[in-house]
Amino acid sequence: MPLSPRKTPLWLPIVVLLIAMTSIQSGASLAKSLFPLVGAPGVTALRLFLGTFILVVVFKPWRLRFKAEQRIPLLMYGLALGGMNYLFYLSIQTVPLGIAVALEFTGPLAVALFSSRRAVDFIWVILAVLGLWFLLPLGQSISHVDLAGAAYALGAGACWAIYILFGQKAGVDHGPATVAFGSLIAAIIFVPIGAWQAGDVFWHWSLLPLGLGVAVLSTALPYSLEMIALTRLPTRTFGTLMSMEPGLAALSGMLFLGEHLTLVQWLALLSIIAASIGSTLTLKRETQITQVDVK
């Protein structure tokens, strides 16, 4: 039985979420390197198929019992998870990783903004927005940002917002095991689509090791960890903490894809990190309020 959110130390879900974000951005860099071989839809299908297989073996989702009021949130959570993966990979075909993640972040940022109830929460949201504004090189190179890729990233952001909102409702009783069921829903829909778009190359055994790496880094590990954090953090705090995602994506792009940052972009990262630290400092009081809502 999963630990009750009331018995979980406040720092633990924060550390878990940081590990999850690091893992998923490393996986995104690896996935992008596979695009020339199998395409973005094919990588999506590989990620979901192998990631879901791992999650099903570990968590055995057929043992879970969901209440009637949790079934619609579970379905929405699974659809959002699949849509987020599919649209994000379509985006980074033509948009740099850091920019795509920054645009995708509009989803959780909107969740953080609309669920804020205290003036101090807006300070952290404003810091995150400032960081994103300077992180995006749109002011100088808007003509070089593919509009279709940007639209895919924004669509992934909308799915991310749905993932946060419905994941908390679906996973409150079963914690990280819920992600196995949600991933199974996503795989049933998006694996056939991706495999069909990729063609015969999708079935080459040579793709299996790299596909498995993407599945572990981008699906099995981070979504399990995110579910732990998602059911133990207030919605607005979870959303604001996710402001570190564009910064981690930029660092991943620099380390694995050779994308270098300017001084302004480093300052933007510091602004985003400051927003995350600020939301963490106000966590205790917010958690006490939210636990009543989640119960």
From TrEMBL:
The chain crosses the membrane at residues 41-62, 74-92, 98-115, 122-142, 148-166, 178-196, 202-225, 237-257, 263-283. Keywords: Cell membrane, Membrane, Transmembrane, Transmembrane helix. It holds the Pfam family EamA. It is found in: Cell membrane. Signal peptide: none annotated. It is a multi-pass membrane protein. Belongs to the drug/metabolite transporter (DMT) superfamily. 10 TMS drug/metabolite exporter (DME) (TC 2.A.7.3) family. It comes from Buttiauxella ferragutiae ATCC 51602. This is Threonine/homoserine exporter RhtA. The keyword Cell membrane applies. It comes from the Bacteria. PANTHER family: INNER MEMBRANE TRANSPORTER, S-ADENOSYLMETHIONINE_S-ADENOSYLHOMOCYSTEINE TRANSPORTER. SUPFAM superfamilies: Multidrug resistance efflux transporter EmrE. The lineage of its organism: Bacteria, Pseudomonadati, Pseudomonadota, Gammaproteobacteria, Enterobacterales. Its main location: membrane. Residues 148-278 form the EamA domain.
